[in-house]
Amino acid sequence: MRLTRYFLPVLRETPAEAQIVSHRLMLRAGMIKQASAGIYSWLPLGYRVLRNVERIVHEEQQRVGHIPLLMPTLQPADLWQESGRYNAYGPEMLRIRDRQDRDMLYGPTNEEMITDIFRSHVGSYKDLPLTLYHIQWKFRDEMRPRFGVMRGREFLMKDGYNFDLTKEDALHAYNRHLVSYLRTYERMGLQAIPMRADSGPIGGDDTHEFLVLAETGESEVFYDSEITELKFGEREIDHDSHDACRAVLEEFTSRYARTDETHDEAVFEKVPEERRRKARGIEVGQIFYFGTKYSEPMGATVQGPDGKPVPVHMGSHGIGVSRLVGAIIEASHDDKGIIWPEGVTPFHAGIVNLKQGDGEADAACERIYAALTENGLEPLYDDRDERAGGKFATMDLIGLPWRITVGPRGLKNGVVELTSRRSSESEEMSPEAAVARLVEIYAPHRARL
Ligand code: ATP
Ligand code: MG
Q1: Mind listing the pLDDT tens digit for each residue in 275-319?
Q2: Residues with Cβ within 6 A of ligand 1?
Q3: Whole-model pTM above 0.85?
Q4: Least C-beta-crowded within 10 Å: which of 18, 39, 196, 385?
Q5: Each residue of 113-150: pLDDT tens digit?
Q6: Reduced to 3 states, what is the DSSP secondary structure of residue 7?
Q7: Is the bond preceding 129 in cis, omega lying within 30 degrees of 0?
Q8: Rounded-to-integer distance, Cα 189 and Cα 25, Å
């Protein structure tokens, strides 16, 4: 993409309405525009990041065998009356009446609708296990929408639902989700710690929330510092194996880590004092096992091996896709702007031409642009006729992890400069070497299905 042909409405001033850094930077970098309280348009740069986050979620869901579908945002109230949640949900649910006077709602989540799909089409235990998921906009009429996309009213969520014959199988699905979530967040450059949580209006027994540590997080958390040393990394897990998934769950949840809702001071005090941490965190996902809470009232049964109908065991599993964009910025920025992790960056590298209009510099930029593109990378070429300082400031603000700086002086010696946004370190090398380096850096971040 050439900047002169792109739409990147960056702001010079710091917007007064933004209280936290991610919100400020998203506005300044031209990523979002508020439409009304808690409802945002995703401008091109923000949209690219949102799509990257979404792509990683899709890839990691499908890697463990979960099946994508797409359910609507608007749902009939009847389904929620069946489960008993229509009245229980309260004012967070946006209720709508259509022209036929039918009660509708903008879905805050989809347990009822997926259970309806399941009961209409699945009749035998032989069709299990089954996990379906979608990535769709949700609406919750939050009392206090704030912090930009972090607590929106309309937000993008991945929600998945598992259907299993037995509790044991459903707990395996739970553990498998935990495995897949750990990988998902790490690919986005985040450490998200699974913490024992409270089940809230979804209901159920087993639940973990995934929290990214950040001062601006809305949840108070308590944990054993050893947990921050755990990495999922490149391990290959047989996701069909109950034992393999359970072992990961045990490894990542055996140390103390809880949100304030489930915090138990007496248990916490058993952690050696020097490892006890109290901090704040951003909830970026949650997994639930809730047994037959929906399948029973809604008649989602299958014929068991003995021919008798049994209600299925279910769980639901959410990832805050749009919130993650803010959470990644909270975890990765400096006073100049955003620092995107390679996995989600909107463009792989910026190309800064120090002397637009100089025949040689222009030609070198074009060659680098073409070479990166041929290698499947997406550069953002700042081809504006502007002074270097302004170009650097824009690149730093929008946070591309790598920058290639091209100028007549370097070109005389056959070199350009490759700069890391994170370390600010620059290295001179030939244009070919810079392209080769970027290809190598991004190799592990390609689609990995
Ligand atoms: P919270 O406690 O933050 O209100 P929740 O526990 O009600 O969230 P879940 O039902 O667990 O939310 O939804 C799954 C994920 O969706 C959450 O982990 C969070 O990342 C995201 N999410 C929930 N509410 C919002 C919101 N208002 N804006 C943006 N993302 C949200
Ligand atoms: Mg939650």
Answers
A1: 999 999 999 999 999 999 889 988 999 999 999 999 999 999 999
A2: 109, 140, 142, 151-152, 155, 157, 200, 283-286, 318, 320, 322-323
A3: yes
A4: 385
A5: 999 999 999 999 999 999 999 999 999 999 999 999 99
A6: coil
A7: yes
A8: 18
Amino acid (one-letter) located at 378: E
* Dmax (CA) of the chain: 81
Q: For residue 79, how far is its CA from the centre of ligand 2 (angstroms)? A: 22
Give which of 448, 445, 449, 439 is closest to 418, Cα–Cα. 439
Which residue's C-alpha comes closest to atom 16 of ligand 1? 320
Tokens of 386: 């502007």
In the chain, the amino acid numbered 259 is T
**Please, are residues 177 and 317 in contact by the beta-carbon 8 Å criterion?**
yes
Quick one: CA dihedral 181, 187, 193, 197, positive or negative?
Answer: negative
d(CA 142, CA 154): 9
* Tokens standing for residue 131: 């996990």
Query: Nearest Cα to 364, choosing from 305, 407, 300?
Result: 407
Non-local CB neighbours of 187 within 8 Å, separated by 6+ positions: 56, 60, 343, 445
